[in-house]
Amino acid sequence: MGMVFGKISVETPKFQVIQSSADYEIRKYPPTVIAEVTYDPSQFRGDKDGGFTLLANYIGALGNPQNTKPEKIEMTAPVVTKYAEKIAMTAPVVTKSGEGGEGKTVTMQFLLPSKYTKAEEAPRPVDERVVIREEGERKYGVVKFGGVATEKVVGAKVESLKKSLERDGFKVIGEFVLARYNPPWTLPAFRTNEVMIPIE
Predict the structure, then answer these.
(1) By its UniProt entry, which Pfam families does this protein fall under (predicted)?
(2) Which domains does the chain have, with CATH numbers?
(3) What's the average pLDDT block by block, 10 residues per block, for the chain (200 residues)?
């Protein structure tokens, strides 16, 4: 893996740019096999990248691959993060999304290299928190930005992207996802991030 200022020369998804404007790009992504882990960020004592380690262990990015083959799987970019409100199991339990995003669950995904076309072709994870599944073809409105993807910055990007998409007649069909192209230790000036909103 060649590191150049924290940029890694790795496989990235082969999307098709359907439309490009000053504000955003509309992209179509092909079906992909992903490894994902969903967790409550508070389980990791405030480490919002807690899922990163589990996924990195599965593919063998941090040493021996923790999968049943065991087979080392090449790292790809970006790492995708989705946020969801946690649904309380029983009424009167109320989970508030306070500061630090309590009451939210985080799903972190690694896209597996394109040589894996079906979920069953990928090595099985040893840790059952890691789930392998297939995602079908999908379309996103995307905006790219540098620096650190703080909650505040991401929130502002999501709002303005949503407005632009709706203004131009696109139908938003789900929550945004955050795509980060560099490992967590990359210097802010060299980071590339994208906010992606699924559209019809």
Answers:
(1) SOUL
(2) 1-30+138-200 (no CATH), 31-136 (3.20.80.10)
(3) 52 94 96 93 66 92 93 94 67 43 79 96 96 97 95 95 97 95 86 96
